[in-house]
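Q: Give me the 3D complex with zinc ion.
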Amino acid sequence: MRIHILGAGAGGGFPQWNCNCRNCAGYRAGTLRANARTQSSIAVSAGGDSWVLINVSPDIRAQIAAFPALQPSQTIRGSAIDSILLTDAQLDHTAGLLLLREGESLNVHCTESVHRDLCGGFPVLPILEHYCGVQWNPLLLDQPFQMKEQPRLRFTAIPLESKAPPYSPHRHTPHPGDNIGLAIEDLQSGRSLFYAPGLGDITSPVRNWLDKADCLLVDGTFWHENEMEHAGVGTKTATAMGHLPLSGQGGMIEQLRSCPGQKILIHINNTNPILDEDSPERAQLAEEGIDVAVDGMEILL
Ligand code: MLT
Ligand code: MN
Ligand code: ZN
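A: Here is the predicted complex, encoded as structure tokens.
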């Protein structure tokens, strides 16, 4: 399977439009060695002109433009995106659905909880009924499934401890299915990916996939639990936002240490010191054998 990173940034992207933190200001001034990153999304394919778009960020238009494989010119209107899979209902993963309104009905896979938020707090799906329409495919937890467009791939939605969006009635009362990780297995190559851009805690099903998958593409949002406060940009903690910080006891670095697969962090917030290629935090990741995703990165499994 081929995995293309469309956007490796967290909500807001990097640099963020209104942010003057060390990273965002340093990037704009040209004094920081770092790559800009658009908002969280990947595309996956196991061959042919058929791609699954996983999460649809507000940057989707630029992301499609930057990746011509998503736009083969076979018909007067059309694209290689045959299906869409959503890991949660957060804006950085769903607001881009509004930008895909011009075509045929969208083939969307998401859990019932996510579907409810996208019909309620952020009613993008009912809005799209006035344009292209949406074909909803309910995603069931822990039940492997295949899509007819990608017969080589087997997907499994793993429930995650993270956070539903602020407009969800589940924000403070988490329900299974508000946030999922995806295990994607290529039945031909026998290799697998575990993708979890928002991961607040390492539960036992998550631990299983961390120990098993050939490639881990996991939450690298924050270095530190109080990073937003330290950067002077807010008071929300990583935990309150549903993200396990990288550093500290029980943090993501420690959790990944024993994993045999390739380790790549994604959904990097603009305040995270690992964006600075010359930072000690980035050097520490290199020592741990952990890579940091960047837009345009490809993984072949
Ligand atoms: C998150 O990942 O915690 C959210 O996407 C935050 C946001 O809405 O920007
Ligand atoms: Mn996010
Ligand atoms: Zn910033």
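A quick observation: The mean pLDDT is 97.
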